[in-house]
Design a protein that fits this description.
It is built from eleven helices and five strands. It is of the alpha+beta class. The strands form two sheets. It has a three-stranded antiparallel sheet with strand order 2-3-4. It has a two-stranded antiparallel ribbon with strand order 1-5. Helix 4 packs across helix 5.
């Protein structure tokens, strides 16, 4: 299946799932906190559904990996799951299915490109899965997670930089990894975080992002790339080989 055909199929699956939701759930799933604040009703935002959806996705992906990769170690399963449910991965899927067209945003977010902002897209996708779970139950949401988030071949899995770096650092007894916020710039609705990756008390790399989590991931990724640990993907056939930290 070509890339264009795959995206078209994903959009069809997503749109059908959205349309299957009852109106109230569907509306809440795509209502960003910026819109709720403007309306004076923070309880109508998708934040609670996002919390639920995050847990649902993590468990559904974990169960799929556990069932389909019986020879893969716990550490590698953790790395695979972290990659597949990362904010970057969810935002990429949300962008592919054009989730942004469903969003209800406040004026500030609307004017500054909120419909394309990765953090908002990833959160809304989690909220959508939370709503879908409430209406359709566990079996149906697992099926939808597989259709939208999982390549059934899983030949290539993106590296989760924070998990990978944590394993590398922990391989040296007594070593310590932490992330320190150096700066938060920009307006409240569009912040830019600068975060340092600190290893054994020494600043090892720096990353930027629209959230603290994204900046931490970029700081870890920058360290990995600079030190030759990652080309951006891990190949499943290599999970059981080499040194266990995904070095290519």
């Amino acid at each position: 299946m070509s890339g264009i055909e795959k995206v078209r199929r994903l959009k069809t699956v997503f749109d059908e799932a959205v349309n299957s939701l009852e109106f109230g759930l569907r509306t809440q799933a795509f209502t960003h906190i910026s819109y709720s604040n403007e309306q004076g009703d923070t309880g109508s935002s998708n934040e609670r559904l996002e919390f639920l959806g995050d847990a649902v996705i993590s468990l559904a992906v974990g169960l799929y990996l556990y069932d389909n990769y019986p020879q893969v170690s716990e550490g590698d399963l953790t790395r695979m799951r972290a990659s597949l449910v990362s904010g970057a991965s969810l935002a990429a899927i949300a962008k592919a299915v054009e989730l942004g067209r469903y969003l209800k945003l406040g004026r500030g977010e609307e004017l500054t490109g909120g419909r394309e902002r990765p953090r908002i897209l990833a959160g809304a996708l989690e909220a959508f899965f939370g709503a879908y779970f409430i209406q359709h139950g566990w079996r149906q949401v697992c099926k939808l997670v597989e259709e939208l988030l999982l390549d059934t071949e899983l030949e290539v899995v993106p590296v989760d930089p924070k998990t990978l770096l944590q394993e590398i650092v922990q391989s040296s007894p007594g070593s310590k990894l932490e992330y320190v916020v150096l700066q938060v710039a920009g307006p409240d609705h569009m912040p830019e975080y600068t975060v340092a990756c600190v290893i054994n008390g020494t600043q090892a790399s720096v990353g930027k992002g629209s959230s603290k989590k994204e900046a931490e991931e970029n700081a870890a990724r920058n360290w990995l790339v600079r030190n030759g640990y990652s080309d951006g993907v891990l190949h499943n056939k290599n999970y059981l080989a080499d040194d266990g930290v995904g070095k290519q």
